[in-house]
From TrEMBL:
Gene3D superfamilies: alpha/beta hydrolase. InterPro entries: AB_hydrolase_fold (IPR029058), Peptidase_S10 (IPR001563). The keyword Glycoprotein applies. It comes from the Bacteria. GO terms for biological process: proteolysis. GO terms for molecular function: serine-type carboxypeptidase activity. Residues 1-19 form the signal peptide. Pfam families: Peptidase_S10. This is Carboxypeptidase. SUPFAM superfamilies: alpha/beta-Hydrolases. Keywords: Carboxypeptidase, Glycoprotein, Hydrolase, Protease, Signal.
Amino acid sequence: MKKTLFLLVLTAFINHSYAQQTGSESKETKGIAKDEKPSPANLVFNPDQNVVTEHTTTIKGQKISYKATTGTMPVWDEDGKAIAGLFYTYYERSDVKDRASRPLVISFNGGPGSASVWMQIAYTGPSLLNIDEEGYPLQPYGIKENPYSILDVADIVFVNPVNTAYSRATSKEIPATKFFGINADIKYLADWIGVFVTRTNRWSSPKYLIGESYGSTRVSGLALQLQNNQWMYLNGVILVSPTELGITRGVAADAALKLPYFAATAWYHKMLPPDLQNKDLTDMLPEVEDFTINELLPSLSKGGSLDEQKRTAIAAKIARYSGISEKVVLQNNLDVPYSYFWKELLRDKGFTVGRLDSRYKGIDRKDSGDSPDFNAELTSWLHSFTPAINMYIRNNLNYKTDFKYNMFGSVHPWDNSNDATGENLRQAMTQNPYLNVLVQSGYYDGACDYFNAKYNLWQMDPSGKLKDRMSWKGYRSGHMMYLRKKDLETANEDIRAFIKQSLPKSGVSAKY
């Protein structure tokens, strides 16, 4: 039987003292007349409140008891004023007496502007939304236990940046530049993490960051920001479907590096020649990767100076590996755009393929055109995730609010300038011998493709001196590889192994 303890810590603009509350109803509507219905205009945002619930689950056959703290915690400015409240859920295993050696995982999703819903109820958290074994929606919507969660080996906090989920600025007068930009995002989130770790008494714990998609940009920058400004040192950073991390590609590399992803997608949809199609995916891809680096990239570097015979030969190989006709490849100067590929691959069969996961198929108004009408995979995901998270927070975590849960919130204009996050992560690793990096990629991800993720590691560490602390894992699904049940189990096991491997043995010093 689930036991529930409600602890609402209220601070009116953070200058009042904390007061314990016994009820679960939100205090956001205080001051509203009884006959007046709450509306966005009269809701009052409380940046510092939480509710605690107690649960049990079974992970890898082992019964686990845990508590979940759900609520908001402030972002403070330089003068000690609360300028925002970040919505979070913190899962702690209850039967652990010694937190000093208990790992803490701090989890972010991406966007920027995306809530942390995706990994919370579909990947590492103790609860799992109701979907089929390949990740497609099922009704009735709902939540079940996640038997593959990493909560058996680590506590987890899922953090939502400003304007995602229930996170908000405390006033419309707060400048958006405080939050909405690569480096502003890293700065205020590092400050928030520092306060969170202090409040929860987790300074002694081994710490890990995990970030998906744009979240990989975020946590790569946070690794150095936490070291340099919070004096907080990490044991690991996990990059799930990572971005380019500010690592410059150049025209030729941008064009070439997408081909292995094209090949994986074409293989999945059975659009390759028989000799390639009859191989297993991971047996076929090394041939494409070798061609990409050793032939395609040098050829594209020559641009218009590439002789016609070589151009035709390269086009034929791109066509062979991508499932796209040689004519189309030549029409696009050996550089078929992602969006055109998603439209073209199955055009003759009347389908498009998904951007974030090319296993998903869509139907357009017309077969002609240069890009799909919509993202087939994202529509599918929102179909199942949105009801599940709203039900889960209210019914399972007992957090009640009339604010809208933003699956995607407005974070525009976003300042993308001065992205040095890949270099930030490299510096953090060189300064901290304990710090390890794990990269997880889905072969069918067309937004943050797997081969660009490998390329990140090569370019981030040009000396090769850090490669023993970097690892890459691939999965037979897309951007959210964990939506496929088999990959959910494997990917969580890879994180579990990474955490165990990166914990230093007793008495082993952080030194070279």
